[in-house]
Structure formats: C-alpha cells, structure tokens
Amino acid sequence: MKGKTKGFIAGFLLCALIVGAVIPASAAVYDKLMEVYYRDIKVTIDGQTVTPKDAQGRPVEPFLSGGTTYLPIRGIASALGLDVAWDQSTSTVSLSTGEQPVDFWGQFMAKTDGHVLTKSEKFVEFGEEGEYTWDAVFLSDYTFYVYCEVQDRYAYKGEYSFEGEYLNLRYSDPMDKQTGDAGHSDIYKTELLSDGFSLELVRTDNANGTGALADEGEKATYKINETKKQYDVHRMVESVFSEYGETY
After folding, report:
1. Is 74 helix (H, G, I), strand (E, B) or coil?
2. Which of 194, 189, 183 is nearest to 156 (CA)?
3. Under a CB-based contact definition with an 8 Å cutoff, are residues 186 and 163 in contact?
4. How many angstroms separate the CA atoms of 23 and 19, rounded?
5. Is 73 in contact with 42 (CB distance < 8 Å)?
6. By the 8 A CB rule, do 70 and 18 touch?
7. How confident is the model over 66-92, as a mean pLDDT?
8. Which CATH class is domain 104-243?
9. CB–CB of 38/61 below 8 Å?
10. Is the CB of residue 77 less than 8 Å from the CB of residue 97?
11. Is the pLDDT confidence value at 168 over 50?
C-alpha cells in the first residue's frame, strides 16, 4: 500500500508538470488527482533503449493513465539532444536545439557592404568569343541595383530581404511601365563564399525563368569587385531607367 501511494504521488507530480505545460494561457490553473499505472514501460529511440532521467540524473519511469502513456519531458528531450527549460512564471516548458539562429543578413552585409559584386558570363557571337558582366550592389537599407553592359543594357532595382539562407528580391525593370507589369520577385538559395556569394534561383514570377541575378537552373557566383564603385553601378542603372522614361 505504501509503495502504491508513493507511486501515485510521484505520478501526480509528473502529470501536473506535463499538463501544466500544454494548458492554453487563457485556461484556469487547477489540481487534478489521477490514477496512474506503472507497467515497466520501455522507451526506445531509433531502436536504442533510453532511460529517462530528471534534472538530477535520477531515472523517471513512464506510466499509463486514462489510456494515455505519459513520458517525462525532460528525460525524453535530453535523450533527443534537446535543451529543456522551465519558466515558473508562465508555466512553460521550452525545448531548443541549443543552436543560435544564423544572422545571414548580418554576415552577408559584413562581407559585401561597400562593394560591387560581379558575375562574368562568356558568349560566342559570329564566331567570336566575348565576355560580359553583371554588377550587383546591395545596400544596408535593403535596396539593391543590378546592371549588365550588353547591347540592350539590362538594369534592375528594388528591395531585398533574407529568410535564413534564402534571398528574396522584389524589383522592377525599365520595361515594366510599357508592359504594365507591377514588378517582379525572385527567391534564391544563397551560400556565402570567402570572396562573395553563390546563389541558385529557386523561384521567379517571370514566365521565361529569368531572374535579376540568375536564370532558372543556373548556380551563379558573384565575387567582390574591387575595381568598380557602387555609385557607378547605381548611376548606370538610373540612366537606363531614365532612357525608358521610368520613374521608380
């Protein structure tokens, strides 16, 4: 009888912790007596047996109640490599991987701020080989400019943002006013390099699969260009827009 009472009390305390963690903020806080059953429940993770333990390293046995199997959250989370924290003021259990989110924008700006980033492309025309470049400028106010010196002179400008390693662009080109387009958007998966960054076009709203920085299926590399100035790229982009009578 004494052992049964001891098990009941231990089970009740554990249930109180688990139930309290999932009660919505608007719900009332209350005590509830439960009848619990210990059945020597085993826990395995990927086929490996684990022994759930409390914060002091003491084994904590799972139990059954009302057709539900209750597991100690700290013991299971620890076995999965998660950190566990308990906030007494809000009755909240927090689980985390312990990894800090990467400030991708901060790393990107630390590497590219103040620089022109250039992508070179080779072409063959009338049997002659040539090369042209795409120059991109990303400013700390979340605006960007792209310019390409070819016969038709390509130019884009707009705003950018990061969601993790994904670079999101919203931009216009000089022809938008004539075609009635409201603008464009691209999403690129980005990888930072020691001398710039590489990116792969994930999605674009352009029907021809052409983005401002790369084409569909292309993995483009932009490298820091010390010979060009951001102001010059900005000026050339604005000159192209002015030629088309576009006011951005």
Report:
1. helix
2. 183
3. no
4. 6
5. no
6. yes
7. 88
8. mainly beta
9. yes
10. no
11. yes
